[in-house]
Structures are given as structure tokens and as C-alpha cells.
Design brief:
This protein is of the alpha+beta class. It is built from 10 helices and 8 strands. It has helices at 2-7, 11-30, 38-61, 66-83, 90-128, 139-153, 170-177, 179-199, 223-239, 268-284; strands at residues 160-167, 205-208, 213-219, 242-245, 248-250, 254-260, 289-292, 295-298. The strands form 2 sheets. It has a 6-stranded mixed sheet, sandwiched between helices. A two-stranded antiparallel sheet has the order 4-5.
């Protein structure tokens, strides 16, 4: 319960931590296992205060010396509440608190190692140019490739198009079902688009440029030629329901912007800013839409 406050930042965890001591102590009073005691009430208020402080400040507390202070106060408060229900001496309360702190310290150092390992993987991902989660090219690679594309294609008459898509209402996946489901959605969408682009022999490159945002660079294709490809892949996406948990399937939709490299573009940034603008036009059109050179249409 204590460590979940640090590593699972969800209101359900907060409410569970706050509600459980009230439930246990209230149930003990109803069952005549204990009587109302002002010290137990103070211990409960202390516990709730610590829970709230940890929930609100977990990101900086977990790497500071205050982590151990919150850990100690959490343990003392809980065992003080339980002392009123089950007969325990003060020395037993302190011993149990010490055991709790020892266990949580071991867990804490384990988590430090895991986070360090994740950071190493993320650095490796950045160095290799691929996104750690989805396996597609990352933002750093996109910046390099888009600059290269601009240098080549701005000096000749060959077309190049860029598409940008965003998973609609992605925040709801994280908020309602948890980040693990959100990560699964990202991997699923990235893999589907990557596979379909390959199967269709498009020679297009897919990049993850933001949290739930992806871009595709189509060499030697106009926006009019690239748009039907992206829409066809999007149609496959919406035809297949995604299982977020046992017995619950949802439909994933995306908003899409598509544009050509223009002669007026002074840099790759101009190219990118325009496709980003068209993406937001599609999103502002109730999402599940496509904007091709500013021409917005809703997708069924």
C-alpha cells in the first residue's frame, strides 16, 4: 500500500489507502473489538496526512531523505491504529515498524535499480535511434531524416509527403485502464502501421514523435497519393477492436494530417509545422478526421 502511493499515481490508490484504516478501525468498533480512543484518531489523521503528502509529492520525495521519514510515520501510524484493535506493547509496535521499514527499504533500493536500468535502456534507445516502447524510429531520428529529406527534395521536382496521426482520446486509456494498457495501445497501433506500410511496399518511414503522435515520410509520393494509404491503414485499425481487458474491447481511432513539401518551405521545420497544423485541424473536427492540405473530412 505504501509503495503503491509512490509508483502507481492513481486516485484509486489514494482513496484505498485513506479508506482502509477508517474501514478497519470503524469495523473493529462495531464489532466491539476496541473502543473509540483519541490516540487512535490522531494516528489515523496522521496516516491520512502522510498518505496525502506522499500522493501529492511522490516524484521528489522518492529520491530524497524525506522518503524514509514518510515511511517511518506511515508504519508507526498504521501499527498504532492496529494496536488499539489487537493487544500490542509499545516495543512490539516499534519492532513491527522497524520490520516494515526494512522491507520497504529493500523494495525501494530494488526500484532504484529498476529505474536506473530503464534509464540505461532509454539512453540506448536514443543512441540507436529507435523508440524503446514501440520499436519504431524515434524523434531524434525523425529530425535527422526530415532534415535530410528537405535538403534533397527541396532542390528537385520529386514529390515528398508527410502524414501525422494522433491516437484519439489516448489519455482516457491511461486514466481508465492504466498506463500498461496505454503502452499496449501505442505498441499495437505502431506495429499495425509499420507492418501495413511494409506490406504495401510504400518505402515510407514511420516515427514516434511524441506521446501518442506519429509521423510518416513518403518519398516520391504526393499528399494526394499518401492520404489514401494512411486512410486504408486507419480503416484496418478501426475494424479490429482492441481488447483492453478480459471481456472489454474498444475501438481505436486516429486523427490525421497530410501535406506535401512546398517550394515555399524554408526548412524541414516549416514542413513539420504545417502537417502538425493539419493534424490539429482534424482533431478540432471532433477527432476521427483527416485533413489533407487543409481540406478536413470526418472518417466513419
Amino acid at each position: 500500500m505504501f509503495y503503491c502511493l509512490y509508483i502507481v499515481h492513481r486516485k484509486t490508490v489514494l482513496l484505498f489507502n485513506m479508506g482502509l484504516p477508517i474501514y478497519i478501525y470503524g469495523l473493529a468498533i462495531i464489532r466491539h473489538q476496541t473502543q473509540f480512543n483519541i490516540l487512535n484518531l490522531l494516528a489515523m489523521l496522521l496516516l491520512i496526512a502522510i498518505i496525502w503528502v506522499v500522493y501529492r509529492n511522490s516524484e521528489w520525495l522518492i529520491d530524497s531523505a524525506w522518503y524514509y521519514a514518510t515511511q517511518f510515520l506511515f508504519g508507526v501510524a498504521w501499527w498504532s491504529i492496529l494496536k488499539g484493535i489487537r493487544t500490542m506493547t509499545v516495543s512490539q509496535v516499534l519492532l513491527l515498524t522497524f520490520e516494515f521499514m526494512l522491507m520497504m527499504t529493500i523494495v525501494h533500493f530494488g526500484n532504484i535499480e529498476i529505474r536506473a536500468m530503464i534509464k540505461r535502456y532509454m539512453k540506448l534507445e536514443k543512441d540507436n535511434g529507435y523508440d524503446f516502447l514501440t520499436g519504431v524510429r524515434n524523434r531524434r531520428t525523425f529530425n535527422e531524416v526530415s532534415n535530410e529529406v528537405f535538403e534533397v527534395y527541396s532542390n528537385n521536382d520529386l514529390p515528398v509527403a508527410m502524414a501525422m496521426f494522433d491516437i484519439d482520446h489516448f489519455k482516457l486509456f491511461n486514466d481508465q485502464y492504466g498506463h500498461q494498457v496505454g503502452d499496449s495501445v501505442l505498441k499495437y497501433v505502431a506495429q499495425l502501421f509499420s507492418d501495413e506500410l511494409f506490406e504495401r511496399k510504400t518505402n515510407a518511414q514511420l516515427f514516434r514523435v511524441g506521446g501518442e503522435e506519429f509521423t510518416i515520410i513518403f518519398r516520391n509520393r504526393t499528399s494526394a497519393e499518401a492520404a489514401p494509404i494512411v486512410k486504408a491503414i486507419r480503416d484496418i485499425l478501426v475494424e479490429k477492436d482492441f481488447e483492453v481487458k478480459d471481456g472489454l474491447d474498444v475501438r481505436i481511432t486516429v486523427s490525421i494530417g497530410v501535406t506535401d513539401l512546398k517550394k515555399s518551405d524554408q526548412s524541414a521545420k516549416d514542413f513539420y509545422k504545417r502537417v502538425d497544423k493539419y493534424l490539429y485541424q482534424a482533431k478540432n473536427n471532433s477527432r476521427n478526421s483527416m485533413s489533407v492540405e487543409g481540406d478536413v473530412s470526418s472518417l466513419s
